[in-house]
Amino acid sequence: MQAPRIVQSDTSLDLFSSGRAMKKLEVIAKEPHPVGSQAHHEVRDYLILELEGLGLKPEIQKAVVESSLTGEIENIITRMPGTANSKAVMIAAHYDSETNTPGAADDGAGIAAMLETIRALKAAGPLKNDVIFLMTDGEETGLYGAKAFMEDHAWAHDVGIVLNFEARGNKGPSFMFETSDQNGWLIKEFIKAAPDPVAYSIIYNLYKLMPNDTDLTVFREEGLSGLNFAFGMGLNAYHQPIDTPENLDMASLQHHGEYMLSLSKHFGQLDLKQVKQEDRIYFNLFGSHMVSYPQSWGMWLMIAGALFFIATVVHGISRRRVTVKGMTGGFFITLISLIVVFGLFTLIWAVWRSTLSNEQLKVMLLDPKVSILVLLGYIVVTVAIIGLLVRWISKKIRMENMWAGLLLLWTLLSIFMALYLPGGSYLTLWPLLSSLIGLNFSIRMRSDERKWGSVFFAMPGLLLFAPICYLIYVLMTLQLAAALLSVVALGFTLIYPVFCARSSHQHSITK
Q1: Which of 208, 269, 385, 450 has the fewest CB atoms within 10 Å, measured from its CB?
Q2: What is the CB neighbour count within 10 angstroms for residue 151?
Q3: 207 neighbors 277 (Cβ within 8 angstroms)
Q4: CB under 8 Å to 135, separation ≥6 — which residues?
Q5: pTM to 2 decimals?
Q6: Domain at 18-277: CATH architecture
Q7: What is the C-alpha separation between 336 and 389, in angstroms, rounded?
Q8: What is the pLDDT of residues 407-452, one digit of tens each?
């Protein structure tokens, strides 16, 4: 997962340039500008002048908020007319900052990208659909600008889709982490249009379970369809004084802008009157190459996986390479290893909290140079623990039984995911299917080296698990190390046959 290369200011005028956008950001985020402050008024005036200079007619929507933290908010709204409008594309970001930070990433990057996108769209020529640009106010204090727009502005009824831009750090790729319901059409078009798409439906499913909100929350609850984008690495800068233009990764700004420009152009030429379609499962397979399919397929694929597992067990029993008792042993060995990993890192976190100061904990959790080394150390410990544990307690179990037992756990997880977390069902289904193919090959082979085939057939699982584990680390920090390392350990269960102490050609009693 990487952000695209930055584009300097001297590039073609119809392209997005992070170099040009950064010059705008240096003005927007030169100091903290919370709602109601003098700096906030100066940013508002600067944005009005910039929009007017681009040939648009911005307006200010004022709204009184019953909050001691906010008072009056002022949204900045403008519209670029199209040639044959169906419904408008709306680009949204907030221009207020927290009280103690210049807010270069959150959300100055979104606002600067908006100015550069408008300039590039002007250079490229008109679109069919109107494009509404909404710079909301009061997001940091309660999403008040988005609420005011949806409640009181006439243009809210003209919106076909909304693209919202946020940040939870100051570096890394910008990924699409949230959609509206019935997102099938949006996802298909997003994959077509985005030059470097990064998105995982499991992240969206998990995000829905969390209490976090952005402006898109308001738009989505009011029935609008949309996509939400953010970069989240460099969490130590989030809502902190170091969230300055010089500390912002320009590649992250470039990624924001490439999404904004390419999707504005794409959706700006489409009929947006009907944009709802069955939800899709989607994920990056490798780099920016994405896969998606209807969510309803997940249930049928899960059933196919469960039947394939049953057929594999029958195959193993018929060839006297798998037993029910031995498979049960493999299942519990796998389950115990995951419990041990979770318990160990829960204990380690408790020790860290009791021995380190708050400042030291903050560095370990939020400083990316420190936390990534801690994470790598944790992974090494995890692999060592599960390798030794499986080696020790698998001395009386045949390798195929271990393999079948761990895939029983994966089958149960696939059923659970398909029923309760459908956007993440791909994460267990495809590794299960691949490893079941490997187990069937192993059952038919005689060579003792066939256990290494488990590594080959585990590759789809490791390929799918790696970015999700990394995103959990980036978004949730090592404060959730026990859960994160349990997920890491789950991925490594696919290669447990390699750690098995007992070879299949040994003649001791199979359990």
Answers
A1: 208
A2: 11
A3: no
A4: 47, 75, 76, 77, 92, 93, 94, 95, 111, 114
A5: 0.91
A6: 3-Layer(aba) Sandwich (3.40)
A7: 9
A8: 999 999 999 999 999 999 999 999 999 999 999 998 887 655 566 7
